[in-house]
């Protein structure tokens, strides 16, 4: 009787495994998002040559958690938090760019100069962050800025060089972060 029960139980357990795979699908591989201009809520780049992709997360109510963008009185704030599958020290990006009037190239300056145009990259070690650290540390290129449409969004590209904000160096963190092939297409959040 036990053998008959086991023979019946094995197919049931195998079918349960298939059912749980459908409930919890495997995550897509980490890759650079396509360069779009449709409000697709994508953000990605290469950090020291490795692909970094933002998590594309929304609340149950449909509000975007990450990446997110705010635009008010000419100031653009853009934030993105990495996908769990991404390896490396950088956990999130924060851009602040002032005097944004529309599509164009906006230089990123040094955070220490209290510039209105800079980028900050945070690491898994909360005490250590990287920031643009020179008058011409990179650029944020806006290819689309729609603030009045039915689905306001901002899209573009970026590249930058960031250095640790603290003078202390950690052996497991790079001395410099070189960010290339950055692209974003994010819906604007209304305040």
Describe this structure in words.
- It is built from one helix and 13 strands, in the order H-E-E-E-E-E-E-E-E-E-E-E-E-E.
- The chain has 191 residues and is mostly beta strands.
- The chain is globular and about 50 Å long.
- The mean pLDDT is 81.
Rg calc: 21 Å
Order of helices and strands: HEEEEEEEEEEEEE
State the low-pLDDT regions, or none. Answer: none
Q: Tell me the span between the first and last alpha carbons.
A: 67 Å
Fraction of residues in H or I helices: 10-25%
- Structural class assignment: mainly beta
Largest sheet: 11 strands, antiparallel
The counted number of beta strands is 13
Instruction: Tell me the overall shape.
Output: globular
Report the average pLDDT across residues: 81
Count of helical segments? 1
**Beta fraction of the residues?**
35-45%
Annotation keywords:
globular; two-stranded antiparallel ribbon; 1 helix; 191 residues; 13 strands; eleven-stranded antiparallel β-sheet; mainly beta
Helix-strand blueprint:
Elements: H1 2-23, E1 42-47, E2 50-53, E3 57-58, E4 64-66, E5 68-72, E6 75-81, E7 90-97, E8 104-108, E9 117-123, E10 129-132, E11 138-146, E12 153-164, E13 177-187
Antiparallel strand pairs: 1-2, 1-13, 3-4, 5-6, 6-7, 7-9, 8-11, 9-10, 10-12, 11-12, 12-13
Concise summary:
This protein has one helix at 2-23; strands at residues 42-47, 50-53, 57-58, 64-66, 68-72, 75-81, 90-97, 104-108, 117-123, 129-132, 138-146, 153-164, 177-187.
């Amino acid at each position: 009787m036990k053998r008959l029960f086991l023979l019946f139980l094995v197919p049931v357990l195998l079918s349960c495994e298939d059912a749980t795979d459908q409930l919890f699908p495997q995550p897509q591989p980490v890759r650079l998002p396509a360069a779009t201009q449709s409000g697709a809520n994508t953000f990605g780049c290469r950090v020291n040559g490795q692909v970094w992709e933002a998590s594309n997360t929304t609340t149950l109510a449909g509000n975007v958690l990450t990446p997110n963008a705010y635009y008010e009185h000419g100031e653009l704030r853009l934030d993105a938090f990495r996908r769990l599958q991404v390896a490396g020290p950088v956990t999130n990006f924060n851009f602040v760019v002032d005097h944004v009037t529309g599509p164009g190239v906006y230089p990123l300056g040094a955070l220490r100069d209290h510039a209105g145009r800079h980028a900050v990259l945070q690491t898994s070690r909360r005490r250590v962050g990287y920031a643009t650290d020179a008058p011409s540390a990179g650029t944020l290129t806006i290819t689309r800025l729609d603030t009045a449409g039915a689905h306001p969004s901002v899209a573009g590209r970026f590249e930058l060089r960031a250095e640790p904000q603290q003078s202390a160096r950690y052996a497991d963190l790079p001395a410099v972060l070189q960010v290339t092939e950055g692209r974003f297409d994010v819906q604007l959040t209304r305040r």
